[in-house]
Amino acid sequence: MQVFELSFVAAVLLAATPVLYAALAGALSAQVGVFNIALEGQMLWGAFAAVAGSYITGSAWAGLLIAILTTALFSVILAVGSAAWKADPIIIAIGTNLLALGLTGFLMRVLFDVSGSFAPRGLQGLDKMSFLRDVPVIGDIFAGQTPLVPLAFVFVAAAGIWLKATSNGLRLRGVGEHPEASATLGVNVVAYKTWVTIVGGALCGMAGAQLSLGNVTVFTENMTAGRGWIAVAAVMLVAGRPLWLPVACLGFGAAEAFGFRLQGLGAPQQLTDAAPYAITLLVLVATRIPWTGSRAARRRTAEPANAVLEDK
Amino acid sequence: MSAPTTERTSRRLLASAVRHPAVVPVGAVILALLVGAAIVAAAGLDPVAAYVAVIEGAFDPRSLDYTVSVWAFICGMGLAAAIPLRMGEFNLGGNGQLVLGGLAAALVARVSPLPGPLTVLLALLAAAALAGAFGALSAPLATRLRIPIIISTLLLSPVAVAVVSFLVRYPLGEPGAAVAQTERLPDAAHLMSLPGLTYSNIGVIIIIAIMVAFYVVDSRTAVGFELRITGANRRFGTYAGIHTGRLAFGAMAAAGAAAGIVGAIIVMSPPYRLIDGALLSPGYTFAGLAAALLAGGRPALLPVTAALFAVLQVGGASMERSADVPRQLSDVLQGVVIIVLALRTVIDARRTGRAG
């Protein structure tokens, strides 16, 4: 029974990790005032680049590195476009998401002459932490996982502390909070926005690599299947408190892992696939409903509804 | 006329030409085609042959009729994106709205005792109602709970797709069929075909009618004016007394209804079945979104931009056959067009020195 439960914990962590990397990217962008919905396409590109890199070099870690670098490069479109050129990040992101979808399918055909999915014989996945095998409890959870899984949580904690406790972190938050005031203080607003978005791209590259070389060892067309949007929802859910991201992402991981379990028990796949999206939206709705307070107070909180829309 | 004056006149002419509303979309398309050509060439393939094959495939007299029906579906899904876009909102839930329309039509066709034209009308109305209600759901989520429409439509869409997929597979599925599909719809629910045409039927006319309706509402009515004002400046719209919440509700309902009608038309056309995945695999939703963005939501431009993406889509298949260039190039071009379009601000940024 204990093994069953620990394997469920492992499954939750596995499902949560790619989303957590992407959500961290989204949360950092949100801190500098960029509404980043390009996570889905960047993660998809990262997943493709990781598999392609691993196949060509024969090393999964080189694949990871290629995924990080090329996804960071890919995110330059959004970074420079939205920060320096003041273009609408939403429209750029819709474009880059479509581009990633098309380009990965196109390159899969051109480079490897396959369509649908690419899993050549001998494709190296990222190493698992099998050295933990004999450690009780921890071994049951982590021995089958890549180091990227615990690293995601370390990254989130580090980012949270960095934002709170360092002067650069403070400047970064200031850029999002009040760009004009930051510029007056001599902070290079455009540089902060640009580099944070590019770092976000690198994180999405890690998200994609974990998905295609960690969770499985294959690239499938559109394999991110909306995980980038779950990450965007997670960013909205935690509303500027990055340390809460793991909670939101583990919730998604639990929904996915639980759905997978139900599927094993005979529940139709279509319905378990939809569950994470429905649950994410329901949680988002639940956290936004003003449950307490008088009718008038509720109306007051409901009033600035358009403010958020204007922010875009 | 002295030399400096000529120069000034020509510069002014040039400036006004650059400001012409068609310059941006046309420029974006040309740049995107160049980027696409560079990608094809980098892949070691022949870009000229690829584009020639696209044109030949799309305008092949034998299948021109098919291109027209694809154009109509992209127009329909373009409306689903353009109507909210007019007020500055993004509807990315077209897939869910599309399949719900298909579902509603299939259900009505199954139970309706009415004669042909009335069954078709009822199916279209049911599709518009169900998909419209589903689209409108996102409006109160935005105005009451501050969940942006772009997020809620995207999270709702896969839920609808999964539910319809489940229904087609199990309760509504044709027993013993190899693929998940409903039984063939009764004859009463078959859309009237147009004389001499194989693919396109009366559905094309219906979609054109909806586009005309959007054009008239947009340019001739108070609601259309409010929609445009809100899109140009939401704060001003609110200040001027426009109920942006109500407007968003109407726009999202209309958008969902347009997508739903496209779904109903596809289901009531050959092979007259709701087939799992068949509504989504051609990618009408995102082709429509790209067309709407390229048109800037303008109703008069939408048919033109939709034609571009219809040509790319239909021609993409023949490009794959005759020039050996993967059809995914069409998706690449859709993405690049949108990116180039968004990045046009670089011109303003350079001119006013806001860059850097």
Question: Would you kindly provide a brief summary of this structure?
Answer:
The complex is a heterodimer of chains A (312) and B (356). Chain A has 312 residues and is an all-alpha fold. Chain A is built from 15 helices and 2 strands.
Task: From the structure above, extract its key features.
heterodimer, A: 312 residues, mainly alpha, ABC transporter involved in vitamin B12 uptake, BtuC, two-stranded antiparallel ribbon, disordered C terminus, B: 356 residues, globular
Explain how this protein is built.
The complex is a heterodimer of chains A (312) and B (356). Chain A is mainly α. Chain A is 74% helix and 1% strand. Chain A has one domain (2-311): ABC transporter involved in vitamin B12 uptake, BtuC (Orthogonal Bundle). Chain A has helices at residues 2-31, 39-57, 60-74, 76-83, 89-112, 138-142, 148-165, 167-177, 179-184, 189-215, 227-238, 245-264, 269-288, 295-302, 305-311, and strands at 117-118, 219-220. Chain A is globular. The relative contact order of chain A is 0.19. Chain B has 356 residues and is mainly alpha-helical. In chain B, helix 3 crosses helix 14 (302-323) and helix 9 packs across helix 10. Chain B has helices at residues 3-18, 23-42, 47-58, 64-86, 94-111, 116-136, 138-145, 149-169, 202-220, 222-232, 234-239, 244-267, 284-294, 302-323, 329-342, 345-351. Helices cover 71% and strands 0% of the residues of chain B. The mean pLDDT of chain B is 89. Chain B has one domain (27-38, 47-351): ABC transporter involved in vitamin B12 uptake, BtuC, CATH 1.10.3470. At the A-B interface, helix 5, helix 11, helix 13 and helix 15 of A face helix 7, helix 8, helix 11, helix 13 and helix 15 of B.
